[in-house]
Amino acid sequence: MDKKAVDKHSGADFPIGKLTILLAVLQEHEWRKAIEQQLTEGGYRFTIGRVGAMDLIKVVAAIETAAKNNQIIDGESYREVHAIYHAIIEAIQSVGRGVVQFGDILRTVGLTFSIVRGKMSGAVNHEGEWIGVCVYGTIGAPKKGFEHEAIGFGFNHI
Amino acid sequence: MDKKAVDKHSGADFPIGKLTILLAVLQEHEWRKAIEQQLTEGGYRFTIGRVGAMDLIKVVAAIETAAKNNQIIDGESYREVHAIYHAIIEAIQSVGRGVVQFGDILRTVGLTFSIVRGKMSGAVNHEGEWIGVCVYGTIGAPKKGFEHEAIGFGFNHI
Amino acid sequence: MDKKAVDKHSGADFPIGKLTILLAVLQEHEWRKAIEQQLTEGGYRFTIGRVGAMDLIKVVAAIETAAKNNQIIDGESYREVHAIYHAIIEAIQSVGRGVVQFGDILRTVGLTFSIVRGKMSGAVNHEGEWIGVCVYGTIGAPKKGFEHEAIGFGFNHI
Amino acid sequence: MDKKAVDKHSGADFPIGKLTILLAVLQEHEWRKAIEQQLTEGGYRFTIGRVGAMDLIKVVAAIETAAKNNQIIDGESYREVHAIYHAIIEAIQSVGRGVVQFGDILRTVGLTFSIVRGKMSGAVNHEGEWIGVCVYGTIGAPKKGFEHEAIGFGFNHI
Amino acid sequence: MDKKAVDKHSGADFPIGKLTILLAVLQEHEWRKAIEQQLTEGGYRFTIGRVGAMDLIKVVAAIETAAKNNQIIDGESYREVHAIYHAIIEAIQSVGRGVVQFGDILRTVGLTFSIVRGKMSGAVNHEGEWIGVCVYGTIGAPKKGFEHEAIGFGFNHI
Amino acid sequence: MDKKAVDKHSGADFPIGKLTILLAVLQEHEWRKAIEQQLTEGGYRFTIGRVGAMDLIKVVAAIETAAKNNQIIDGESYREVHAIYHAIIEAIQSVGRGVVQFGDILRTVGLTFSIVRGKMSGAVNHEGEWIGVCVYGTIGAPKKGFEHEAIGFGFNHI
């Protein structure tokens, strides 16, 4: 898919939050190529990953590790770890919709997360970088067909 | 865009949650046509709307009214009103990421919401209907450029 | 106790929520017979049970299992499982009074729960069925005499 | 209804929490007489009242005022005001089931509250007094038939 | 440091809350002597302690045990245990700043707590005693340098 | 008070969080001079202020305005506004101890806040700047003597 085709599809550029959300939601869908192309051309650092449990410690650790291993953040900088940590917590609280404290009783067969770091086009002066974390998947009882979709998104300056 | 073109674009069918999320996120983007086509062909009832304030009463009222006016729910049935009410609350709690109680101090220049009602393909026995509500927009101080994106999604049986 | 006696005692019929609450609170008290009679005559499905720990997973599992084993809900229907799940979560959040997240440090020597399913007399058009879950018991430190009473009630359409 | 009849009905004494809950729930039901008799004989101070709105300030104020006017608490003692304040907040959080922050969008056509102060029979050494607050009523949209029951209970040492 | 020196340093007496906060925050700092002197002269009962984990059960148990062992409260009185329990919960919720439910993923290398019991000078009629609990320390990832300070304070009548 | 006197008083340097907390708590106490001297010598930017209401919008606005007017943050930078906003929200949630949503019913006769920006000595590589916000005051009913102390602290990278 060349640049022209992408333009034709996307019309206008997506802001960083939409790019993060679409990266997590589209997964293996064909449209994801256009999202990744826009991310690459826009100079964003990004990655996607999966985590198989709703255990809060594991979800946070999996996202944080993916961010470090893919050079989205500098794992030796507490500022960057602090920034992504709060973005992850926001995303998980968003997924939990007020009952996140019951995480123990929720199971999931597959949570996909995306992490995107870069400029926020709409911000004043286009200053500095921001980081977005999106978590999408199904939440429910540990039984096939007894779960439904949920999404969470967190955002922070970095 | 004919059926074939949609197939080429979408590859596989999206589940009801993704359709709801993409409807709110894509907005005027060209891809929305494919989403609407899939919704129509899948027998879903759906609508999108906008609300200009983060005032909780107004957001809930705007979404509920849109659902009634577009025949997504039967406004004379308390069961249906109860079902969408909890889906809306979930979506707003999800947008708020744990600080929704500070709604008073958050402003927004535009919140887009989508409502989708229909079958959940993944559920056991494909029984009954479900309703999804997605809210997407920017949240922040009442000053241009001092806001960032947020998304919330709620889901319920109806 | 015949119909007349019940009438004399109850004066008027209780709505579904009161029936659920009284079933959990009255326990072995003589008045419970009148409540059960009213539930039976009103065509409600109901059960009561006990769970000995404030461990959230166990409380949810115990109530859900009791609902399935007593044919209050159809365990093969995700819609019904989803409906009771949210009613249970509401009841537990209600018991927790804002500190439910500290469930780990709360112990209980006996939590009684009731589940009632049926018509809601006050609802418009008397349409469809609803499910109520009430949890009543003592919460406190794991030491006799260092606990006090608490109650929670959740309600949903089914 | 004489003492004997009460004994026959109640069988055993209810603890302070049950008395508070039953006082709010039974309302005009005949059984309430037996509850009030047990409260009087047990040396409890108690009252019931009603408040027509879910506005948090008004609910708290109505309960606090009723407690003062009926000599349940000494309005000139900050300790007693502090004790009932936290019991009221617990009761309201319990009613709200995790969404109390949306109080603005909830309406009610009638909330009944009960306040009971006295000994807790189960506590070690039967020392000191405790206060219970129960709130029972219907919560929902401001439209007849579009609401359902809810209950909350708070408890504190005084 | 004699009484005069303290007066010169402190100027005016601190209220009970400030004394509790300063006791936890100052730790080994020289000023602590003046705080302890003021506490002793004011007839307060107090203690400080440390707990090495953010595990909620352990933090609550450590503070409660310290209060009993140092005769701040009477461990045989449920009223006193109930009073300090709620003060501890308030302090921990305050430390958690809305994400306390994620306690599982927070680690700490050292949490200092203080407990102070005595008169509240500002209260009407100077009646009865109150108890303050302050928790101060660093919260973060289990890695040196990846944590920052946090403080929590709870208060109750006793 | 010369450098030597400060050393004698403070013994060791306080970290940024303690400085922020002590600035808000000490207020007009003589020790504050030593805190301000340490802040100045450490190259911190700081300010203190007061706000007379527990109205959330006004508290957030007062702290944010003070930060801008005293050049603690650059009001034209969304990153800096975003950083202090989350620190303020954390401080207020910390003050509220789980009942901040009832802000409407809480009154205060005086909330003192401090804002400190600068290096965090304990962080890895001593990189970048951080911002701390502390809120200290009395919370209670709008009646003299019917309130008690509370404190909240928020912290963020900037």
UniProtKB/TrEMBL annotation, chains A, B, C, D, E, F:
Gene Ontology biological-process entries:
L-histidine metabolic process
Q: Which InterPro entries match?
A: Regulatory_HutP, Regulatory_HutP_sf
Q: Which Gene3D superfamilies match?
A: Hut operon regulatory protein HutP
Give the UniProt keywords, A-Z.
Activator, Histidine metabolism, RNA-binding, Transcription, Transcription regulation
Q: Output the Pfam families linked to this UniProt entry.
A: HutP
A single Gene Ontology MF term assigned here is: RNA binding
Tell me the function of this protein.
Antiterminator that binds to cis-acting regulatory sequences on the mRNA in the presence of histidine, thereby suppressing transcription termination and activating the hut operon for histidine utilization.
Family membership: Belongs to the HutP family.
Subunit composition and interactions:
Homohexamer.
Q: What is this protein called?
A: Hut operon positive regulatory protein
